[in-house]
Model the fold of this input.
Amino acid sequence: MRIAVNEQLYDAVPSSTAGTVRDEVKPDADVLIVNGFPAEPGQRLGDGDRLVLIRRGEVPSADELDALLTARHTPGVHERVKQATVGIAGVGGLGSAAAIALARTGVGRLIIADFDLVEPSNLNRQQYFLDQLGLPKVYALRDTLARINPHVHVTACHLRLTPGNIAEIFGAVDVLVEAFDRADQKAMLAETFTARFPDRPLVAGSGMAGFGPANSITTRRVFGSLYLCGDGETAAAPGIGLMAPRVGIAAHHQANAVLRLLLGEDPAAD
Amino acid sequence: MQLTINGKPTETTAGSTIQNLLDQLRLDSRQVVVECNRAIVPRQRFGEEFLAEGDTLEIVHFVGGG
Done:
């Protein structure tokens, strides 16, 4: 039977287990992953299975890196998300967290746009670091994403998004994430993008301030291809700050909605 | 006259514009996206678009934070 071992084709005898192939190919491997899921050495292998063998702590060669980075990706999913282009409008609390989740998921291309610089008040919820203070957020985030997954192609646009440049910057995206802070900017982007690309999904965020219940944050379809993640009503206001947990929950609702859309699933299904 | 807003029947004064309706609903026109009979209405036209009996609207009101 034919299997893939660290993404190389391999002819294995029919009675092979993850352990017997490990002993033949990479005897010092101590992490065995079959079809994206950790396996015991005794697990039987079947035709077409994907086995990834990792030695814990080892720095892999460049050739091996791609296979190892994708070892925990579900086969069939990775190939599809790798072809995708996702736009992220604004890389504050929502956008920086969604970008990291999508890069870890292996989305092939991200287009990120934001005019802002990293400042200390961002660090309570945004995915930046002290040594990035003062940098444009899009460049700081591009560096962070490259440290996580160098195979993601990131286009960083350090500019203010306006009705005049949104179609140009995000014209190539399969899905756009709205991740602005201000309500009027969210509305501006949603109006501009949905009017110009009515069939292209837009995943917006609205209502994630404070420390209210996590379970009040949902993903729902509003109309057409516009989806909304959040509780829909809790605005950031004096006394109701933006905090890492709920902003992170909403951002990951957005990232999961993107993933589901890329895989042809309904993001708002129960 | 009767409209359907976000799936719910809603009464408004005959001759209302979209801006009048937003005022009635106490919604800030800068923070909404309005779809009327399945077409997005640019916000510059909120004051000139008159509503008609039976119009179907979807109104998304965004709140700040992100």
